[in-house]
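haha ok so turns out i had the wrong file open the whole time. this is the CORRECT one, sorry everyone. sequence first:
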Amino acid sequence: MSASAPFADVIPDRSQPQDADFLPLNGTDHVEFYVGNARQAAYFYRAAFGMSLVAYAGPETGLRDRASYVVQQGKIRFVLTTALRSDNPIADHVHRHGDAVRVVALWVDDARLAWRETTRRGAVTVAEPQVLSDEHGSVVVASIQTYGDTIHTFVERESYRGPFLPGFRAVNDDPIARPVGLLHIDHMVGNVGWHEMDRWVNFYRDVMGFGLYQHFDDSDISTEYSALMSKVMASGNGYVKFPINEPAEGKRRSQIEEYLDFYPGPGVQHIALATDDILRTVNQLREQGIEFLKVPHTYYTELQQRVGTIDEPVDELEDLGILVDRDNEGYMLQIFTRPVEDRPTVFFEIIQRKGSRSFGKGNFKALFEAIEREQQARGNL
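then structure:
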């Protein structure tokens, strides 16, 4: 059995009744990036995104092969990990993908149960359940494979009172951090290859008990030049949402094809970070050096006719480049950064929801035209 396979070559036992939610998730515990220089990456997320350094592990704490910096804002927790020597799987991951998401960790009440339920349904084990302990208590963790080189780690931390995980020491004061009002991870988007989306939709449905939340095809997400398809999978309780994108046929290369080429292969494309004041958050992010995609003036001349009355001044939205979309439950505001490294791969979305639970379908055309302008500038359209 290949460790890179999406799930084992077995047929899950469907003779027993399937629980409505056999994998209850409390939310995203953390996201771990493998990076070339964790100290510098941590400085970027602290100075630009306003996250605080809260924990560290490395040679000074007895960790001999890597260094990890934990940065946090609100409920968002990123772990930035680098290899200390070149003969290390972390270094191999960075060589192949650049700075990229390796671990999407999910907070659960029972990590052993989460591992057992997913593996008996066909998940490939990356790490069997293990107990990590120190003077602050214990944590149970277990990991399974998902698309590409990405893994899901189940984290059970009810019996732990430390800063992050056993082996990490707390950092109590961060003079560099400049918080911008980020609250939690709204959703996390994965890109997969041609004709691979349904395979991964089936994985999240059959192995992890997720349901199809929304579906967009190439008639929804397309421009004159490129297109893609997307399906949003959500955990049983709705706390965790993973949109999955695949390319669709177009005249030129889509953003998904560009990602798959430069990453290369499947991986996490972007992370949506929630705020309750997007005007303040984006203003501060811009002041701290974050660059966002630009939207033409014509988008805003038609905005209020399309979405109706909103609380925010349209001129301020246009100045910042914030997009707005409405559904039958309310509206949402969103904006997308440029890629945060030189490879056109990982980027971030800033999102504020005012009732809407959708993903900005009305903004797709403007957004993808903005992305195409960036692709054109890079010579990759």
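The radius of gyration is 21 Å.
again sry for the mixup
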